[in-house]
Amino acid sequence: MAANVAAIPFVGKAAVKRYPPATIAIRITERVPFAMVRRGENQALVDDTLRVLEDAPDARALPVFVLPGGTAFVPGSFLESNDALTLRNVYTMLASAAFTPAMLTFDRYGQVEVTTASGVRMLLGEPANLDDKVRLCSAIVAQLAAHGRKPATIDVRAPSTPVVTYATRG
Fold first, then answer.
1. Residues 123, 151: Cα–Cα separation, whole Å
2. Which pTM was predicted?
3. In terms of C-beta density within 10 A (0-12 exposed, 13-18 middle, 19 or more buried), how is residue 66 classed?
4. How far is CA 7 from CA 2, 35, 124, in A?
5. Most-buried pick from 22, 37, 52, 85 (CB within 10 A)?
6. pLDDT tens figures, 146-159
7. Quick check: 94 and 112 in contact, CB under 8 A?
8. Residue 101: is the preceding peptide bond cis (ω within 30°)?
């Protein structure tokens, strides 16, 4: 019975206890929405383990992961593609570095791009060495903030020669 309850997409864990003669207690923990994922015209809500919770939910203030392809999402299934795992890991790294990613995607060459909630576009490139690239972005943002500047784009696809474009004032 616990396995049947746990199969419900929003249920994280389920435990069933029987109290004879006729009482059953079911304890569940609910999964917490983590991000929206998009694939073509299809979108779904997922938790931090990338379990699909529901199709096409209403608009929420969650990060959006844009994945290549166009197949529909199946509620209750897990997204196990390298692309989905990469975007989740990038989100986690950026969030721990005090960035607020709003949209994470791949460019046509398979390189990671992020747009933050404040509108800064970060071109991170290949998924290799992302932790170093995130540290570099943090240092760039800190240095610009000390001078009262705001970046529009931070390009660290070639970490030894980062490129920054500035937001226009006004």
1. 12
2. 0.85
3. middle
4. 9, 20, 37
5. 37
6. 998 899 999 999 99
7. no
8. no
Tokens, residue 11 = 């249920």
Domain regions of the chain by residue span: 1-30, 35-166
pLDDT value of residue 169: 66
Amino acid 86 reads T
The CATH number that domain 35-166 falls under is 3.40.50.11690
Residue type at 17 in one-letter notation: K
Pair of tokens at residue 45: 């809500």
Side-chain-side CA neighbours of residue 121 (13 Å): 14
- pLDDT value for 11: 86
Residues of the chain with pLDDT under 50: none
Q: What sections of the chain are H helices per DSSP?
A: 2-6, 82-96, 130-146
